[in-house]
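Thought: the user wants the 3D structure for the chain below. I'll pass the sequence to the structure tool as-is, report back what it returns, then summarize two notable features.
Action: structure_tool
Action Input:
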Amino acid sequence: MKAIRIFMALFAVALFSSGVAAATGADFLPVMGITTGISLIMPPVQGVLFSGINQEIWTGALVEEFDKADQAGFLNEIPDESQYVMSSKGENEVIHLNDIGADPEVLINNTTYPIGFYTQVDGDIAISLNKYQTKATKVSDDEIRFITYDKIKKVQAKHKNAVVTTKHKLAIHALAPASHTAATPVLKTTGADDGTGRKRLVPKDIISLKRAFDAAEVPDEKRILVLSTDHHNDLLDWDSEHDTARYSADANGMLKSLIYGFKVYVYVANPYFSNLNFTKLAFGATPTAEHHRASVAYAAKEMFKANGSTKNYTDEPDTQNQAWMYNVRHYGIVLPKKQRAIGAIASDVA
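Observation:
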């Protein structure tokens, strides 16, 4: 029996020394049964081996899952310019957009020569990506001593979801105009009182937004409308009154058909607008009774999005705390290329 125990111990050490200790996740699963079997034989070795393995799991498990989760239906329509992201000095990550100047003048039935020319002057627009950082989560070494994968995934999922949710909220806020202009129309709802002193959104309000986009010569290819939940509920009420099902949404928050030329989504965290001056509330500011979430519209090809790096950070247990600390840093941005081809419908007072 003693000889068998010695053989098992030597076999396990050989596995780790050959590189198994550097494996991650699924690659290491076949070895877990062996390490569990010899944990009582080699207690001093276990702490050393598992420390390295835990570090690999913490640092390698999030990035792929983060990319999969970083999706919102209304953002999938926007061109991705991540390939142009560059690192600058310090911690900043920057994307450079080209401002290609004014469109050339078109002559009709010209009889004057030489025609003439103008020089196109391109400009560089450097935009720093937003940096998202989570506050660290503390996980005791006892909790993950035996590589409890579910615990690690749970902690990482919370950080991932927190960053993704914040990114999407900031994105829809950035895609909404600050206030009404001819190039960035902010229209008012015109329906009946919903019982709270707010005018409901009705279909003709969406037609009015289409007219405003037409007048501003907003490209009609991939016009996107992101309804607030209040406005979507208004349309569902209108549906029930008129015995239709035009405004129901699927599991991804997208309505089943185009509405007056708009591809329509629903999102729960649209920006707030004042019902007094119809300006957008600053991101993160606390809304008051005068604020309601607005619906946001934009021409997708006039917007851009970009993601930079995603990095995990871990602190290993020390003599006093004996706990891991974990957090995440991620870079990303969503913006209009210029302040045009965006609009909103804000709730008016009844």
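Final Answer: Structure generated. The CA atoms of residues 78 and 300 lie 5 Å apart. The helical segments are 2-17, 29-37, 43-60, 63-69, 73-76, 149-174, 203-215, 229-242.
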